[in-house]
Amino acid sequence: MGIDPVMSYGSFHPDYSEVIKYFEECKIYTAQIECNLSCPQGCLYCYASSENAPMKELRKEDIISILDSAVKMEIRAIDWLGGDPLLRKDWYELMKYAMSKGLKNNIWTSGMPLEDVEIAKKAVEVSENGFISVHLDSLDEVIYRKLHTGDPKKKIKTILKGINNVQSLGKKPENMINCITFTKLVAKDAKKTIKYFFEEFGMITCLTQMCTVGLAKDRFAWLPSTQEIKEICEFRDKINYPNSSLSISSMDTNKYYCGGMICVTIDGDVTPCSVIRKGYGNIHISSLEKIVEKHKDELLLTQLRDIQNLPGKCSSCEHNSVCWGCRATAYYEKGDILAEDPRCYVNL
C-alpha cells in the first residue's frame, strides 16, 4: 500500500518524502519570501496589503542574505510570494541564484505575468524541481468583479492563457496549483472552479480561508459559514484526494507543509505563516539564523507535533495525522495561534 495522497499530494512539494522527513526532524523545509506588494490582480481581501499601500519591494540584498542563510540552515525550498513575485525586475536573477545554491523554487503568482511566453519560459526553468501556483477565485465574471479590481473578462482570460503557456512549455500539471481564496462570494461557484481546473488542466486546488487582516480587515460579511466551508472543502478533498479517507478540513495544505516553513514578510518580520502577521524577530535587526535559533518553537509550532497537545477535539480527531487546523484562522479569530481552528467543521 502506497502513502496516503493527503500526506503526499497535500504537501504540494514534488519531493513529499523529504518534506515529511524534515517535519519529523523538526527542521525548516521552506522559507517563504514576501518579495514585493505589487500585483496586477487587485484582490480586495489581500492579507499582505492595506488601503493606499506603497508599491514596496524587499531589497535585493535582503533576499540574497535570506537565501544564503537558508543554505546554511539546510532549508530545501523557497516559496516566492508577493504581491506577485514575477513583477520584480530581478525575479529571474534571484531565482537563478537560489537554484545555483541548490534551493528549489516555488512560485506563487497571480498567473497573469505568465501570459508573456518569455516570462512563462523562465518560470518553468527556475521552478524545475518545485511548483507554480496561480490564483483564480472564480470563472464567473460577476463574482470575480466583486473580489478584484479591473476587467474580469480580461483578467480571467489572461490567467488561463498563462497556465496554457507554462504547461505547453513542459510544466507538469501535478506540479501546478490553483489557489482560491475562500470567501462567501465564491461559495456557490467554487465546486465548478475546482472541477474545471482538475479536468481541464490536471491541477489541484489550494483552498485558502480568508482572514480578516489587511484589506479584509473589516470584511466580516465575506466570511463563509461553517456549512459552506464543509461542503466546499469536502468537494476539494474528493477531487484532490479521491483515494484517501483522510481530510485536511479547512486547511489549504497538510500539516507537513505548514509545519515545515517560515516566512519573511515585506517588512523583514519572520513569521510562522505569511498570513499570520506576527513577527518573531526581524532580519533588519538580526540574522535569520539567530532569529530561528531563538524562536524555533514558535515558528515551527513544535508544541502541536505531539498529538496530545493539539487543542480541544483536535487531539482525538481521526484526521490529526495530516491536519492540525489552520493556525491563521485560530490566530485572527481566537487570538491564539495554538487554539482550535474556529472554522473546522469536523470538530464541531
Characterize the structure shown.
- The chain has 348 residues and is of the alpha/beta class.
- Helix content is 35%, strand content 11%.
- It is built from twelve helices and eight strands.
- Strands 6-5-4-3-2-1-7-8 form an eight-stranded mixed beta sheet.
- Strand 1 (30-34), helix 3 and strand 2 form a beta-alpha-beta unit.
- The longest helix has 17 residues, at 152-168.
Describe the structure concisely for a colleague.
With 348 residues, this protein is of the alpha/beta class. The protein has 12 helices and 8 strands.
Mean pLDDT, rounded to whole units?
A: 95
Strand order of the largest sheet: 6-5-4-3-2-1-7-8
Strand content: 5-15%
Helix percent reads 25-40%
